[in-house]
Amino acid sequence: MKKTVLKFGSYGFLVGISFFLLVFLLGDNLSYSIQEVIGYTSMIASLSFIYFGIKHYRDKVNNGVVSLGKAILIGLLISVFVGIGVAIIDYIYTTVINPDFATEYLDKTLATKKETLSPEAYEIEKLKLTEQMEAYGGSGFMAFIMFATVIMIGFVISIISGLILQRKQ
């Protein structure tokens, strides 16, 4: 099981890095909403290796058998591997590559909101978003949020994959 998790977790990690580099290279021309869609797409693509890892374990390692519990465990372990990779990339990006990311994101989001909201609604939204960004605390917490997001999405994919792939003797 360990080799399967490392192999497919590594594949997921490499796909995540590839998407990150793609967004990083093209990011100046893309809006934050497009970057967010690409970010979630990269998470799903990276976590798709959960399905392939469970299938590989069932067919190649465990003689065509895998229980739902074992499938979920394999999926979660692959998710942890991918989540750690995504968190590391996010931390490096927000501390080394673009330490002003949070401020830039807030400024661009508020500029968009200012165009679409009434002055009163804008002030309420501005206060709410500013407090929210301050509550995040910094790069470490944002990296943790990315890790937790990957784990939650990975858990759902693990359950779905486990239900599809489970096979008893």
UniProtKB/TrEMBL annotation:
Residues spanning the membrane:
12-31, 37-54, 66-93, 141-165
KW Transmembrane helix (keyword) present: yes
Domain of life, per lineage: Bacteria
What is this protein's name?
DUF4199 domain-containing protein
- Write down the species: Hanstruepera neustonica
Keyword set, alphabetical order? Membrane, Transmembrane, Transmembrane helix
Residues forming coiled coils: none
InterPro entries noted in UniProt: DUF4199
